[in-house]
# Entry
Amino acid sequence: MKLWLVQRPDEHDYDVLNGALVRAGSEAIARQLVAAECGDEGHDVWFASSTRCIEVTTTGVAEVLLRDFTNG
# Structure
């Protein structure tokens, strides 16, 4: 299994899922899992195809990988 960071690529002014850290065997499965979680928002198909999805590894430079801000 791998870790995937799945995030919205857009800004919004209402309460929606901003992103998720997912454990899955592939990027496609990670997107599907997140889409299933936000299906009640009416964006399940969009979220599965239009999100930023990167594999999280322990290598690389020091950086913030996820900033989650709640609107409202």
Notes: The chain has a mean pLDDT of 77. Residues 2-56 form one domain. Helices lie at 27-37, 44-50. The chain is about 25% helix and 25% strand.
